[in-house]
């Protein structure tokens, strides 16, 4: 299960609303205790996808490494990645799956007409062939 504290949650929603109608993306930093992930900080990352960003995001590997480093400096861990789905459900697409990694939680925020609608968290399997829904609270 993954729990997002109010401050990072508000930051994630406002990031997703600001980039609408394009996808936003970012890193979630926090701690893991007894299998429960607690997100304590959200870090905005740039969507560097060169094409139509309304339906796709891409992270720079070095930005992800920087997020991992920032987490360690704060004695936190890089728990996962968030991104938004403008005018689309918070499902995990084939592209999302292909670009995922099995050790992170992937939170998808559905933004409809510029406003937050709903969110889901996904856990890809080792083969990146499917993702299970993870219990999410915020
Ligand atoms: Zn997606």
Summarize the structure.
The protein has three helices and eight strands. It has 138 residues and is of the alpha/beta class. It starts with a strand and ends with a strand.
Any overview of this molecule?
It is a single chain. This protein has 138 residues and is of the alpha/beta class. It has three helices and eight strands; from the N terminus they run E-H-E-E-H-E-H-E-E-E-E. The chain has helices at 6-19, 61-73, 94-98; strands spanning 2-4, 25-33, 36-45, 77-86, 105-112, 115-124, 131-134, 136-137. Strands 7-6-5-4-2-3-1-8 form an eight-stranded mixed sheet. The longest helix is centred in the N-terminal third of the chain and has 14 residues, at 6-19. It is globular. The model has no long low-confidence stretch (mean pLDDT 97). Zinc ion is lined by residues 83, 85, 93, 96, 108.
| Rg on CA atoms, Å | 14 Å
Beginning-to-end CA distance, first to last residue: 11 Å
Strand count, sense and barrel status of the largest sheet are: 8 strands, mixed
Number of helices: 3
**SSE class:** alpha/beta
| Poorly predicted segments | none
Strand content: 35-45%
For the secondary structure, the number of strands is 8
Element string (H = helix, E = strand) = EHEEHEHEEEE
Bound compounds: zinc ion
Shape summary: globular
The order of strands across the largest sheet is 7-6-5-4-2-3-1-8
Overall helicity: 10-25%
Mean pLDDT: 97
